[in-house]
Design goal:
With about 140 residues, this protein is of the alpha+beta class. The protein has one domain: Aldehyde Oxidoreductase, domain 3. About 25% of the residues lie in helices and about 25% in strands. Strands 3-6-1-7 form a four-stranded antiparallel beta sheet. The chain has a three-stranded antiparallel beta sheet with strand order 2-5-4. The longest helix has 14 residues. The radius of gyration is 17 Å and the shape is elongated.
Length: about 140
Amino acid sequence: MLLPKRQKYRKSHRMRSCFKRKAHKGATLAFGSFGLKSQETLEVSSRQIEAARKAMSRCIKRGGKIWIRIFPHKPITQKAAEVPMGSGKGMVEKYVALVKSGTILFEMEGTDEVTARKAMTLAKHKLPIKTKFVTSHDLN
């Protein structure tokens, strides 16, 4: 699973108000010929990213190269069950990546388009957001 090696602060605010606009950075293919682009804004956990990556790599049978373009930096806390009010912020439960609409999530190279589309469809079912398959011909 993807986790940050070290952070300046262990816990952070949710910052859910910064999801207003579309993504400018990371909105085009940079490494591969095929990609999976988000169409809505949401938080994607490290477990979901890893499940999508495994589904893609098993589908292409390790024949091509896969790039993960998002990283879960943001810690999400959760209080334990039956904890009374006023006992502070909970412990870090998971890490999430803030994904805006238009962000490229995964890229792939080294396979044909049919296999890449099939692998990206399997990855799409593992993610909580709406996505679409893009190629380098679409974006140029």
